[in-house]
Design goal:
- The chain is α/β, with parallel strands linked by helices.
- The protein is 33% helix and 25% strand.
- The strands form 4 sheets. Strands 1, 2, 3, 4, 5, 7, 8, 9, 10, 11 and 12 form an 11-stranded mixed beta sheet that branches. Strands 13, 14, 15, 16, 17, 21, 22, 23 and 26 form a 9-stranded mixed beta sheet that branches.
- Helix 8 (135-158) links the parallel strand 3 and strand 4 (174-180).
């Protein structure tokens, strides 16, 4: 494919054809396709400012006529255009509406930039395309070429050079360098994945903003009775999928995503550690997730005991078009693996705080989505200011407790954070704009994904110094932080997993989920209860403070003050201890 266009994105194959100059841009099939779609958009929206221009031409001939006019404007002066089109009344009338044509070009350019634009480059060299060695340079050159095409035509219509130039990303938002990773035997049940391209490198041009069909997640993932790949392997179009190799905690994961979900596949890079192909080529994964399979049904997972692979599958439809579905299945697969190995998954956040005197404290706040974990830690960071020398996020959503050397040790799963912007301070998003990936920024439950730690930091293992349950619903409390006296007293609260839903999922009002974690513990409840007993007994045996943090995030009017007050009290306790 030279390019693939769907409703919201275009994927251009730079290996098959790469526009090296402005004329090649204007002559490309992709340019003509985008122009035609934009013209149909004008008709559909009944844009009264631009319709008079289009009405000068027969509807079927509008794209071809305008494409010809743009080529002439780019290469000729207006006097030369008059000469070569002498007698062509249609072009003459269009050129007489120069100001409207200028507005058309501006809006067309904005239409192009609103499309999610991606390019792919195969590491195998092709005749008319880009070599792998010039992969990064190609993104810059294409951006400059598109920008130059737009500016040259616009300035000629404007009548003079622009006084101000804005270096907007006009080419592609992101690009993938692709190669092969045939990790399975030819007669393997997973051999149908062998023809998929694997990601070798990613280039992102910020700000990266994507829009999805959904802006919240629904439900959990049931465990299938048989391997779900049997649903798709006989009609699997390998050319439509790309594979991202990631470290999810201590596990190697291969995520095969359909190109229609390119934004989600690229966003993984901000959340899970990318594994270069030279380090995983030929290696069997611990976790395997196929996102966007061609089948009718729900998302589900399965433990392939024979191959020792935890397998997840999500269907190709609008119901899963939200990054939460990509992220949470991977966490379900990993958490299930951890439980099977005797470790305890924690749905929460863990932060390592370094005091001025060098003292380090590792604080874990547990709670389901919308409980106020991230918001409280962000408030802690803002409130503490210069009173602490460093604050490192070990995990922002999911971690694992392991008992090692008679201590409870916390490990992270993700190198990034999937942050709900609605409840963060107003300046948070702007501070992170240069490296964050934004999702549905103008909608309720808008999100950003931002890297916040290195893989070595989240996997170093940190002794738990305080373990708190995030209570977002109690309006009144004696203190923002309260501690439990016994393990049994604490376990009741943590296992109940109560919260007031904040609109991050389909749930409303007060809800409960086992151990506040629908992604593994719910599917392995009996095994998890045994591990919970061991961990809580060890925490109380070692006199580690275990309690509740009243974030009041779901209390009307306390969305910002609640986490701030909780953070203030938490910091006071950290200083005391």
């Amino acid at each position: 494919m030279e390019y693939i266009f769907n409703e919201k994105q275009v994927v251009i194959n730079f290996s098959e054809n790469f526009c090296k100059n402005e004329i090649e841009v204007l002559n490309s099939d992709c340019f003509f396709d985008v122009l035609s779609r934009y013209i149909e958009h004008i008709y559909k929206t009944e844009n009264q400012a631009l319709l008079p221009l289009l009405d000068l031409m027969p509807r079927k001939k509008v794209p071809g006529t305008l494409a010809r006019i743009f080529k002439m404007i780019f290469g000729l002066s207006f006097s030369d255009i008059e000469k070569v089109t002498d007698g062509n009344e249609t072009i003459k009338k269009v050129m007489e509406m120069k100001s409207v044509l200028y507005d058309f070009v501006q809006d067309f350019y904005n239409y192009w930039r609103r499309i999610e634009r991606y390019s792919v480059v195969l590491s195998r060299v092709t005749k008319d395309g880009v070599e792998a060695s010039s992969f990064i340079q190609a993104q810059t050159e294409f951006n400059d070429t598109v920008l130059s095409t737009y500016r040259t035509i616009s300035e000629k219509l404007y009548g003079e050079k622009f006084p101000i130039y804005r270096q907007l990303p006009a080419g592609v938002n992101a690009s993938l360098l692709l190669s092969k990773n045939e990790w399975m035997d030819k007669d393997s049940k997973y051999a149908f994945l062998a023809k998929c391209e694997a990601i070798e490198r990613i280039v992102i041009r910020p700000p990266f903003i994507s829009y999805s069909a959904k802006n919240k997640r629904t439900g959990t993932y049931p465990e299938a009775k048989e391997n779900p790949i049997n649903r798709i392997k006989n009609n699997f179009d390998a050319k439509s999928y790309y594979c991202y190799a990631a470290k999810v905690g201590g596990a190697l994961a291969y995520v095969y995503f359909h190109r229609d979900y390119m934004a989600h596949g690229i966003t993984i890079g901000n959340l899970f550690e990318f594994v270069p192909l030279n380090l995983c080529r030929g290696k069997k994964p611990d976790l395997l997730y196929i996102f966007g399979g061609d089948y009718d049904g729900e998302s589900e997972f399965y433990y392939d005991k024979e191959s020792d692979i935890y397998v997840g599958l999500a269907p190709h439809n609008s119901s899963i078009d939200y990054f939460g579905y990509m992220k949470k299945m991977l966490l379900t697969l990993y958490n299930t693996k951890m439980i099977d190995q005797g470790f305890l998954p924690i749905h929460g956040a863990c932060v390592k705080i370094t005091m001025k005197d060098g003292t380090k404290k590792n604080i874990v706040i547990m709670g389901d989505s919308g409980a106020g974990k991230s918001e409280s830690l962000e408030a802690l960071s803002e409130m503490a200011g210069d009173n602490i020398s460093a604050q490192l996020t070990i995990f922002d959503d999911m971690g694992t407790f392991k008992i090692e050397n008679d201590e409870v040790i916390a490990y992270g799963t993700e190198i990034g954070a999937f942050v709900r912007l609605d409840d963060m301070t107003s300046g948070y998003a702007y501070r992170e704009m240069d490296r964050a990936i934004f999702m549905n920024p103008d909608k309720v439950n808008s999100r950003l994904v931002i890297p916040c730690a290195t893989y070595s930091q989240i996997m170093a293992g940190n002794k738990v110094d305080m373990y708190l349950y995030a209570n977002n619903y109690d309006e009144e409390c004696e203190s923002e932080v309260e501690f439990y006296k016994t393990a049994d007293e604490a376990k009741k609260i943590f296992i109940r997993g109560a919260r007031r839903a904040k609109g991050t999922t389909q749930e409303v009002g007060m809800t409960e989920s086992f151990f506040a974690n629908p992604f593994g513990p719910v599917q392995r409840e009996e095994q998890t209860r045994v591990i919970i007993d061991k961990v809580f007994n060890k925490l109380f045996e070692n006199k580690i403070p275990v309690g509740v943090l009243h974030t009041r995030l779901a209390v009307p009017g306390m969305e910002h003050d609640g986490p701030a007050l909780a953070a203030k009290k938490l910091f006071e306790l950290i200083e005391e201890k």
